[in-house]
Amino acid sequence: MAAILTVDGIHKSFGSHQVLRKVSFTVEPGHVVGLVGPNGAGKSTIMKIVLGLIPYDRGSVTIDGVPVSITSHRTLGRVGALIEYPGIYPFLTGRQHLQLFAQGANKKQRIQAVVHDLGMEKFINNKAKRYSLGMKQKLGIAQAFLNEPALVILDEPMNGLDPEAVKQLRDLIRAKADAGVSFLISSHILSELEKVADDVLMLNKGLIVEQTTMHAMVNQGAEVYLVRTADDQATKQALGNASIPIMESPQGILINHEDLNDVLRVLVMSNIHVEDIAHVQHDLESSFLDMINSGKGGAVDANAR
Ligand SMILES: Nc1ncnc2c1ncn2[C@@H]1O[C@H](COP(=O)(O)OP(=O)(O)OP(=O)(O)O)[C@@H](O)[C@H]1O
Q1: SS3 for 107-165, per residue?
Q2: Could you give the CA distance from residue 210 to residue 190 in angstroms, rounded to a whole number?
Q3: In the predicted structure, residue 2 carries a pLDDT above the cut 90
Q4: Where in the numbering of this chain does the ABC transporter domain appear (predicted)?
Q5: How far is the CA of 288 from the centre of ligand 1 (A)?
Q6: Could you tell me the fold of the domain covering 5-213?
Q7: 88 lines ligand 1 (CB under 6 A)
Q8: Is residue 202 within 8 Å of residue 209, measured between CB atoms?
């Protein structure tokens, strides 16, 4: 099936500051794509470009095959978005906001549905000036979902939400994705997207440094064991002699899952007493930091200029 969103070779500078370098990716129908990167990586800039809100220097953006730019917004009627802060009118109620933004048939039913899906019943008839940060965030998310878009773009949607609201939002995103809606969702916390994203784009300093599935990302971090022995020095030497790769950590020696049998064989044959072998919980944030710190993130791709 053709991608709903195609971003191809986007470059963007603010004055002399280049903030995006040759950014390319696609969002397929029914897929949830997580855009992850540290503060200032360029996530919001990508989203604003996709929404035709700011110009870009080079490359192309198409939604449903139709180009999007600051002067071409034709397909944006199929897109729902929450970028940075939700636009709130303090003297309107939440429901009045939704009535204002609803378009097309069955407005009342659609408003009811989104209010229910996001658990907004208790405050939807109060004026927005009395809303907490999380309530405002929910109202912004509700607006993004309201007109049954084919593509939803959410910039840091978990900001300000309590754990119950995060779960409601995750469930809603997954249900909509199963029904064919596509998502581009940013976060600076990779684990926030763990349960919801199908694909992950890692952005650092304006470059996409990794593009993978969330499944591969989670498993990449999961395949590690921590080995504790009576003699770490002898262990390192024996495994080194057997050409088995190890990583050292403050907790002990880390080995890859696929080397476990070989490691045990070598340690037994070397008479090294094994005290403990533990499966190390995957840690998405450290995989992310490793990626960022590996040099990939800071380097300017030679082809990117
Ligand atoms: N209007 C602007 N003028 C000048 N520089 C800008 C502008 N908007 C963004 N930038 C710069 O572009 C870079 C990317 O910003 P962007 O907001 O896209 O990052 P981000 O990944 O969304 O960060 P955060 O997680 O903090 O929201 C930053 O260095 C930022 O200072």
Answers
A1: HHHHHHHHHHHCCCCCCCCCEHHHCCHHHHHHHHHHHHHHCCCCEEEEECCCCCCCHHH
A2: 13
A3: no
A4: 5-230
A5: 20
A6: Rossmann fold (3.40.50)
A7: no
A8: yes
Pick 223-284's CATH classification: 3.30.1330.60, 3.90.1150.10, 3.30.70.100, 3.40.630.10: 3.30.70.100
**Is residue 43 packed enough to be buried (19+ CB in 10 Å), middle (13-18) or exposed (0-12)?**
buried
**CA-based nearest residue to 158, from 182, 176, 179, 133:** 133
176 contact partners, CB below 8 Å, separation of at least 6: 145, 152, 183
What are 256's two structure tokens? 């890859």
Global pTM?
A: 0.78
pLDDT > 80? residue 251 = no
pLDDT at res. 73 = 80
Q: Whose Cα sits closest to atom 24 in ligand 1?
A: 39
The rounded Å distance from CA 34 to ligand 1 centre is 18
Q: Contact at 8 Å (CB) between 34 and 214?
A: yes
Question: If you count DSSP H runs as helices and E runs as strands, how many of each does the chain have, helices first?
Answer: 9, 14
Q: What is the pLDDT of residue 291?
A: 57
What does the DSSP assignment read for 68-92?
A: -BTTB-GGGGGEEEE-SS----TTS
Q: In the prediction, which pLDDT does 281 show?
A: 61
Of 270, 205, 284, 207, which Cα lies nearest the Cα of 239?
A: 270
First-to-final CA distance of the chain: 31
The reported pLDDT for the residue numbered 63 is 94
Q: 55 or 212: whose pLDDT is higher?
A: 55
Q: What is the ipTM of this complex?
A: 0.96
Distance, in Å, from the CA atom of 112 to the CA atom of 128, rounded to the nearest integer, reads: 18
Give the residue whose CA is nearest to atom 29 of ligand 1.
Answer: 40
Cβ–ligand 1 distance for 54 under 6 Å, the answer no
Residue 301 has pLDDT above 60, yes or no: no
Ligand 1, closest atom to CA 15?
Answer: 4
Give, as one character, the DSSP assignment of residue 103. Answer: -
Domain ranges of the chain: 5-213, 223-284
